[in-house]
Specification:
The complex is a heterodimer of chains A (about 290) and B (about 325). Chain A contains eleven helices and two strands. Chain A is mostly helical and about 290 residues long. In chain A, helix 1 runs parallel beside helix 5. The chains are: A mainly alpha (about 290), B mainly alpha (about 325).
């Protein structure tokens, strides 16, 4: 009984981080119908930001969060102007290809500079014990931060002028433009926010697990599944989707080899899409 | 079809591929053309999906790798002759693609593209865990298997000619589909799937059929390629670089055109050869492919053939 409870708690902790990692992807997807294939690499960029800042400047790993957030925002805005701006309103496949090619460039440069070596950032925090089971402190803190960030994103989208304008653009870009919302600038802000979230997620994951330049792929793939489970452009949905995925992973891990986990998740992805084209936790009022 | 000049242009290209390296017994040229053949085969078949139907398949490498595995395994474990192994590989992979296609092609556009990434993960996980295929260490076959083809030196030529034939078949397949009613239906799906369905194109069946058709020849090419190296392992067989390059080639040459894709494959192969030997760029192959793709997608979405068509309108009548 305690074992089941422990594995559920573990699933929720991991799932909250998965949810955070997917939030940036789902935000961009929901606002402009663009699937950002650089997402995984941006997660890794957050990890590298953590590693470089924490090691070079010697600051506490958690203090790298603000610079990663701000840096991610500007990288995202640049990404919008380079790869996405000309693709908005074109067939979705074109933006898929353009972000895919930016990803190739980033991965190519990243592997040329850092190779595929394993990086690790040491974090020591007291854990929390439950009978025989111990949950690492870094895990709990990462999950709590993920939940806080999701909450802040919700507040941003629902209670600030920019956030409301973003939701208006997501709902109907032309109508938003007609009532005087500068849609282009808002799309750039959306991509900036999405990439900043990816970077922060990467930074938090970097405090939990070792990583390489190529680690982003797995988180990106999980991001697709979380997005589909949670509904498009819905940050709280992404968190719920992430938790569902985390708990599911905890439940299957004892029975199948690790390399099959992603396959099972992808089968789920296809099945969910066929059964619920708008996501399981999708709100009825439309995107965001 | 025999009266169309394009039919004979393809025949000429095939003849040039077959004859040029054979004249001087030029092994170096042959090895470079082997890669060109693989690129043309992969890109032409990807083009059936990407160019005609407008569905991006990020996992076209699965057909190549799975074909290679089936072929090498049949030769290694069951002593099948090469020809039958190749046919089994092609037919097997095609049938699998049809089954999967009926499932995942119910997903539209971007969702299909994402699920093709899942297919790659799934097949790779299968190959890594399937013990008869040697798991992650793969299968080696002894050079003995080259004996029925007349020793390894001669076998390499036989394999090369078979690859040229596969490439030629790919070009003719692309052309034949484009000229057929089936192809017209696919192009209609590419332009507007809902409208096509309303006008009576059986879209789910057509999509699954073209997905399956685009699997056959890459599987054979994979069988030949890995038989040639007498070794196959998951990381080589399902190397995503090759899928990526096939997409770059399609876009470079002009998606939806037959000659553009072949031209793009040939040019890309030359460029890649140059990059790999140059000391500055050897590590940046993917980066350069990325820059190339980005520039094409942003500024020249119709590729090389689009440029040629706009400069020489008459070319549209001759080159498909």
């Amino acid at each position: 009984m305690l074992g089941i409870l422990a594995s559920i708690i573990d699933g929720v902790l991991v799932g909250l981080v998965y949810g955070l990692a997917a939030m940036g992807l789902t935000l961009i997807w929901g606002v402009m119908d663009v699937i950002n294939l650089t997402h995984g690499t941006m997660v890794v960029a957050g990890m590298m930001g953590l590693y470089l800042l924490a090691n070079a400047l010697g600051i506490s790993p958690y203090l790298t969060l603000p610079p990663v957030l701000v840096g991610g925002f500007f990288v995202g805005v640049a990404l919008y102007w380079i790869a996405i701006h000309r693709m908005v309103g074109r067939p979705p496949l074109m933006s898929l290809l353009s972000t895919f090619s930016v990803n190739l460039i980033l991965i190519g440069v990243g592997t040329a500079v850092w190779g595929t070596a394993l990086f690790n950032v040491e974090v020591s925090l007291p854990g929390f014990s439950l009978g025989r089971y111990t949950f690492p402190g870094a895990h709990i803190l990462a999950a709590v931060l993920a939940a806080v960030i999701a909450g802040l994103l919700y507040v941003f989208l629902h209670y600030t002028r920019i956030g409301k304008a973003l939701r208006a653009v997501a709902n109907n870009r032309e109508a938003a433009e007609l009532v005087g919302i500068p849609t282009t600038r808002l799309l750039a802000i959306a991509v900036g926010t999405g990439v900043a979230l990816a970077g922060v997620a990467g930074m938090l994951i970097g405090t939990l697990f070792p990583f390489t330049i190529l680690s982003g792929d797995g988180y990106q793939l999980k991001g697709f599944i979380v997005t589909v489970l949670g509904g498009f452009g819905n940050p709280i949905g992404a968190l719920l989707g992430g938790i569902a995925l985390g708990v599911l992973e905890g439940a299957v891990t004892p029975f199948v080899p690790v390399s099959w986990t992603l396959v099972i998740e992808f089968a789920l992805f296809v099945l969910v899409l066929i059964a619920f084209p708008n996501g399981i936790f999708a709100s009825r009022r439309g995107a965001l | 079809m025999l009266r169309r000049p394009f039919f004979w242009i393809i025949a000429l290209v095939i003849a040039a591929f077959a004859v040029l390296p054979a004249i001087g017994n030029d092994v170096e040229m042959r090895e470079s053309l082997v890669l060109a053949c693989v690129y043309i085969t992969l890109a032409s078949n990807l083009n059936l999906m990407l160019g005609y139907t407008g569905y991006i398949n990020f996992g076209s490498i699965v057909f190549f790798g799975l074909g290679g595995y089936i072929c090498v395994w049949l030769i290694y474990a069951h002593d099948w002759p090469l020809v039958w192994s190749l046919i089994a590989a092609g037919a097997g992979v095609s049938a699998l693609a049809l089954v999967f296609g009926l499932g995942i092609l119910r997903l539209r556009g971007a969702f299909f593209a994402l699920s093709t990434i899942g297919i790659v993960e799934g097949v790779q996980a299968f190959a890594e865990n399937f013990t008869p295929w040697g798991g992650s260490s793969g299968i080696y076959i002894s050079p003995q298997v080259f004996l029925p083809l007349g020793g390894s030196a001669r076998a390499l030529w036989v394999i090369y000619f078979a690859l040229v034939a596969t490439m030629g078949a790919s070009l003719y397949l692309s052309y034949a589909i484009k000229a057929s009613k089936f192809g017209l239906g696919l192009l209609a799906i590419g332009q507007n799937e809902d409208a096509a369905a309303i006008l009576g194109v059986p879209t789910p069946r057509y999509k699954a059929l073209v997905y399956s058709a685009s699997a056959f020849l890459p599987a054979i090419a994979g069988g030949l390629y890995f038989f040639k190296s007498a070794f196959i392992q998951p990381s080589d067989a399902f190397d995503l670089t090759l899928s990526t390059e096939a997409i770059v080639i399609c876009m470079l040459g002009g998606q939806g055109t037959v000659s553009g894709v072949a031209l793009g494959a040939f040019l890309y192969e030359q460029l890649r050869g140059y990059l790999l030997t140059s000391s500055t760029f050897a590590n940046f192959q993917l980066t350069i492919a990325g820059v190339l793709l980005l520039v094409i997608v942003l500024f020249f979405p119709s590729g090389l053939m689009g440029f040629i068509y706009s400069r020489i309108p008459a070319a549209k009548k001759v080159l498909e």
